[in-house]
Design a protein that fits this description.
alpha/beta, Glutamyl-tRNA Synthetase, domain 3, 2 domains, three-stranded antiparallel β-sheet, 10 strands, 30% helix, 16% strand
């Protein structure tokens, strides 16, 4: 395995609560994928939404990653500290954008944004900022899902890049950060629908996109995704080796049975045996 410091992967949790098994799977996958390539791995905390940020969640997340040997090679970045970068990007996008006064209730019966405020170039009170999509088609190449083409206007419509409360949208912040030094993004398929939107933002900012791979997400037996909303149990840091063995099993790479594994040995085994093509098209259901 050759070192290639120009390659950089990332794991970017939102601090809405502690990590669960589904998020640990995404973290380990992104870690092993970039490490096998000889690259570096980076942790970014996506804490742009204060109302959704849980008390002590950042500390809990970082403690869980550390307990499982997942240490960022670069200083931790918090999106809340990068407001200036997002504001600069927003200013660059304003020639493609407009101010929108529509409420959620006004839009709830439309499959995509109907263009109500598309000609509004003057900021009013209580307005969001939307990026005009037009009739653009955009192809996304994914290491897991292959290449797919999207008609952005029909599928997504003009989308919000700054919320009415003045907060930067998830997609704008993520696009700006992922197009900086990040070269590879391995994340869950639940986030794939955001990819064409983020690619369009990168394209209009003239930024280079990373390589994407979207792996299946962990679900309960009834098909619901593990999440904070579905009360997914927090990872027990005291069972780190057992947790990692479960993660690799979910990812289609069962660990050989031996009497003793350390966290470090398991990660080294995972890096050496990492194969994205072995990840099942659907993970077996979660069981505690």
């Amino acid at each position: 395995m050759h070192s290639n410091q120009n390659l950089l992967g990332r794991f970017a949790p939102s601090p809405t609560g502690p990590l669960h098994m589904g998020s640990l799977i995404a973290a380990v996958a992104s870690y092993c994928d970039i490490k096998q390539k000889g690259g570096r791995w980076h942790v970014r905390i996506d804490d742009l939404d204060p109302p959704r940020t849980a008390v002590n969640a950042c500390t809990s997340i970082l403690q869980t990653l550390e307990a499982h040997g997942l240490i960022s090679d670069l200083p931790i970045i918090y999106q809340s500290q990068r407001i200036t970068a997002y504001r600069d990007a927003l200013n660059q996008l304003m020639s493609y954008a407009f101010f929108c006064t529509c409420s959620r209730k006004q839009l709830e019966h439309f499959p995509v944004y109907p263009g109500t405020c598309r000609n509004n170039k003057e900021r009013l009170e209580n307005t969001s900022i939307r990026l005009s999509v037009g009739e653009q088609k955009l192809a996304c190449h994914d290491l897991v899902l292959g290449t797919q083409e999207h008609e952005l206007g029909k599928v997504f419509g003009d989308f919000v890049i700054q919320r009415k409360d003045g907060l930067t949208s998830y997609n704008l912040a993520t696009a700006v950060d992922d197009a900086q030094e990040i070269t590879h993004v391995i994340r869950g398929q639940d986030l794939y629908p955001t990819t064409p939107i983020q690619l369009l933002i990168m394209q209009r900012l003239k930024l280079s996109p990373p390589t994407y791979g979207h792996i299946p997400v962990l679900t309960y037996g009834d098909g619901r995704k593990l999440s904070k909303q579905t009360l997914a149990p927090a990872i027990d840091n005291g069972l780190a080796t057992s947790n990692l063995i479960k993660v690799f099993t979910y990812l289609g790479m069962p660990v050989p049975n031996t009497d003793e594994w350390t966290v470090e040995q398991l990660l080294q085994w995972g890096i050496g045996n990492w194969d994205l093509s072995k990840v099942p098209s659907k993970l077996r259901p979660y069981s505690a």
